[in-house]
Amino acid sequence: MPASREPTPAKKNLKPAKKEDQKSAIQSSTCRIHLQEFSELTGYAISTCEKILKGLTDAGYVDALDAIRALAQYFRNTQVDQELKQKQIEVAEERRKKLELERRQKEGELVEVAKVMQVWASMLSVIRNRLLQMPQKLAPLVASADPTEAKTILEKEFTALLSELKEDLRNELK
After folding, report:
1. Rounded CA gap, 72 and 51, in Å?
2. What b/e string do you get for 75-92 counting C-beta neighbours within 10 Å, with b at 16 or more?
3. What is the pLDDT of residue 155?
4. Confidence band (pLDDT; 50, 70, 90) for 127?
5. Lowest mean pLDDT: which of 37-51, 64-78, 132-146, 160-174?
6. pLDDT category, 156, cuts 50, 70, 90?
7. Which of 28, 91, 98, 165 is the most buried (most CB within 10 A)?
8. Cα 84 from chain centroid?
9. Would the pLDDT of 16 be above 70?
10. How far apart are CA 127 and CA 165, in angstroms?
């Protein structure tokens, strides 16, 4: 449907107008456009245009300035809605990550770094002390043994030491 526009008043004075005069000239504009033309100009469906221009149309026509204001407000609201939705998505994702971490911690998949460092420091101290005791403990046992017997003694003692360390580690993690 072609647009029906009423003519705007001709400019008589070419001097720059005062702001008040400009506002009143803009407010007294009588340029009207048809809803169909507004739809074509904006690229929105007529039903969307009717929502944007709700209460501003008169027999299918709307004041052009009112249409621009309504469209600007629609864009502002749409942008705010999108930003709000994006923020809600971000908050939900953060909440999901937090809950996932809490679940994994409860199930024992995650432990605090300080706890791990404490356990390792303790275990390394125990390993060091036990290894330093080995020569004193084993020297008398292997001094008079033949090489095969010395090897068996050493394997037995190291296996026992490793078993003890394994048990100590289990107890530390509980």
Report:
1. 13
2. eeeeeeeeeeeeeeeeee
3. 92
4. confident
5. 160-174
6. very high
7. 165
8. 13
9. no
10. 7
Distance CA 152, CA 135 (A): 15
Tokens in use for 35? 């809803």
Q: How many C-beta atoms surround the C-beta of residue 40 within 10 A?
A: 15
Give the position of tokens 């300080």: 114
Question: In 3-130, at which residue ranges do the beta strands (DSSP E only) sit?
Answer: 32-34, 61-63
Query: Per the structure block, which two tokens stand in for 18?
Result: 């005062």
Does residue 63 register a pLDDT over 60?
yes
Q: How far is CA 77 from CA 84, 119, 170, in A?
A: 10, 56, 59
Structure tokens at 127: 């390993």
pTM as predicted: 0.39
